[in-house]
Amino acid sequence: MLSNLAVRDIETLVHPYTNLATHRQVGPLVIESGKGVFVTDSSGKDYIEGMAGLWCTALGFSNQELIETAYEQMKKLPFTHIFGGRSNDPAIELAEKLKEIAPVPISKVFYGASGSDANDTQVKMVWYMNNALGRPQKKKIISRLKGYHGVTVASASLTGLPNNHIDFDLPLPGILHTSCAHHYRFSEPGETELDFSSRLAAELEEMILREGPDTVAAFIAEPVMGAGGAITPPDGYFEKINVILAKYDILFIADEVITGFGRTGEMFGTTTYGLNADTISCAKQITSAYFPLSAVMMNERVYEVLVDQSRKIGTFGHGNTYAGHPVGCAIAVKTLEIYQRDKIVEHVRSVAPTFLRRLHKLAEHPLVGEARGVGLIGAVELVQDKLTRGSFEGKKGVGPKSVSFALEEGLIVRAMGDRVAFCPPMIITEAELEEMFDRYERALNKTLNWAKGEGLLAA
Ligand code: PLP
């Protein structure tokens, strides 16, 4: 029996990333409040938010300092924009702060409101820049299969997941996808991580040569692939990619929308994995998700080209209303201050061993083929046959089933097919991590019994 709220939801909302037909029957999970790493639904049931929302509420769900910062800034100046050379104090302060903590030398910051629009900005900047440099044919952008970069027309094209392309008439021409750097799934028998990385780098180089190096402008990658299944890169991968990109003068765009601000145990995943990034997209944890805000950080070389071209054209004709929003920027400044004051990176490093120990222990479970992670982000890959790494048929919905059993146990995690991700708020304690995995273990056991009952595994 659906609640009144659920019925109103069904009558009014189109939900992102939802089977809209099923949703009409089952209705929503309505979240009403949050405290620390917990959220509470409309029936009063508590959950550990094991995904920090959508990989974003780093400081949990009740940070009073962020709430007060928002309120104070709202009272003082709820909105102003930064078009036409206008500015505001929080926007400037945030850019200064970002430059200070950036993992590579950064000259300037360009604001947006979402990770998707940050990546659209990246694509447009690359095109604008190469026109400015008098090489209008150097426009192609290489992304990766299973990469996730957003849902707007350009960023969805960068995304390497079928559901973001099918029947949306995407990807755009000129956006290419190279192989996914997931050793467990795509390595050849006996291939070491290093050999796998070498093969993928060679494959990237072949693609560049096939297309013509003078037509390839940029490469984009997440340090840890998020929505593709929380996939950590194999040994040596980015070192080898850096070399190829430098060889053909190809810009490296790091998508740090998930990995930015501590998630991997360094302030940026670029540092953890040694990406030679020219530009960086960030969002989500920049405000601990208390306000929609994104930032593109660019180096001096890119910035100077934008300056020259805007002088020629008369303007840099790009940007949106909420760029440099004073409330968002004030919250971001406070968020970064809290990260530094409360030593959030050190905290992630200190609890990561517990997170990773419990995550890797899940690999002993009959349903888990691989458990992988870094810092406070990770995933398990559910398989039908551990020995052959054989997957369940997608339609069986084993991953989603384990997520619904986790909900019963009071835990929110996310299934991307049969990959189930964990990415709790970064303030989580060791005791809360133990509880999170206890709950997921119970959910996995229920999933195993269910799978046996359905005849999906040998009894
Ligand atoms: N890039 C990455 C790595 C992401 O994980 C996401 C969202 O999850 C995006 C870009 C898109 O961000 P948004 O959903 O804010 O548009």
What features would you describe in this structure?
By secondary structure, the protein is an alpha/beta fold. The protein folds into 2 domains: 4-62 and 343-453, Aspartate Aminotransferase, domain 1 (Alpha-Beta Complex); 66-341, Type I PLP-dependent aspartate aminotransferase-like (Major domain) (Aspartate Aminotransferase, domain 2). Helices cover 42% and strands 15% of the residues. It has 16 helices and 15 strands. It has helices at 4-12, 20-26, 52-55, 64-76, 89-101, 115-132, 153-158, 183-186, 193-211, 237-247, 269-273, 300-313, 326-341, 344-361, 398-408, 430-453, and strands at residues 31-35, 38-41, 46-49, 108-112, 140-144, 175-178, 216-221, 251-255, 279-282, 294-298, 368-374, 377-382, 411-412, 414-416, 419-422. The strands form 3 sheets. Strands 4-10-9-8-7-5-6 form a 7-stranded mixed β-sheet, sandwiched between helices. A 4-stranded mixed β-sheet has the order 1-2-3-13. It has a 4-stranded antiparallel β-sheet with strand order 11-12-15-14, with helices on one face. Helix 9 packs parallel to helix 10 (237-247). The model has no long low-confidence stretch (mean pLDDT 97). Bound molecules: pyridoxal-5'-phosphate. Pyridoxal-5'-phosphate binds at residues 54, 114-116, 119, 148-150, 222, 226-227, 255, 257-258, 283.
